[in-house]
Amino acid sequence: xxxxxxxxxxxxxxxxERFGSLYTVxxxxxxxxxxxVRGVQTGVALHALLGVCVVLFAAVQVQLIRWYRLGDLEPxxxxxxxxxxxxxxMLCMVxxxxxxx
Length: 101
Hints:
Layout: H1 11-42, H2 45-70, H3 77-100
Helix pairs in contact: 1-2, 1-3, 2-3
């Protein structure tokens, strides 16, 4: 098996990465479900489209986390991963407000 490019991963880093992946998947799927439910209730297809956009954004986030975990990205990319997680959180909150406000 090939060794990671930038050294091994500590248990703490592995726990943070797994939590980040789980958080990303849960938040994006919850937003997608809310988008589909609200889209069916109101008959507005724009809600479903926004939900799909959130899921695509989350897919990019999960792929970055996967590459980071494999050691293909430098450690400085951790900041970008955390920034994208914050942006995804804000996107999901804004989408939820848009659906129900």
